[in-house]
Design goal:
Layout (H helix, E strand, L loop, with lengths): L17 E8 L7 H4 L1 H11 L5 E9 L2 E8 L6 H15 L12 E5 L2 H17 L13 H7 L23
Antiparallel strand pairs: 1-3, 1-4, 2-3
Length: about 170
Amino acid sequence: MQAQPWLMLPASPNLPGVSRLYTLRLAAPESALLTEEIATLRALWAEWMVAPGLRAEAVVVLPGRLMALLTIAPGLEVLPRWRGFRAAFAGQVAPHVSPLWAEEITIQPLDSPVARNRALAAIWDAPVRAGLVRHPEDWPFSSLQRDLRRGGRGRQAGQGAPRHATAPPPLH
């Protein structure tokens, strides 16, 4: 897939480190708990995943899956944050469901701008590939909404066809 100009993310000059794509899934893939409990999820994200040295470049929440492209400063451990986030969410919204989350957190290192752009496209296009919306900007639980409010990426009203990327191969 060739990177399209609107997919390009600037380097993170104020945050040296690595970028990774994280995918978390609920144990019951048909569940819609993540979107049904989006307010709780957002509050816990702010508590567990907002920290100095950690930047969420892009995030999408689907009914049973969360994908996040994070830039992480050297030396910062993120897995304990993910574990705490998952445990807190489970404890608040489904304390009697075990397990709520699939055991594995998929982590994909993104070692080049092309890899970052593919991960970004995967995040933005996830609701389209899942059949939830026709255009990435129509999904309300995506950081693309934040980017559009800031005058960033995506299709502007009246500009014709959506400019989302061709879906890359599935990320595991």
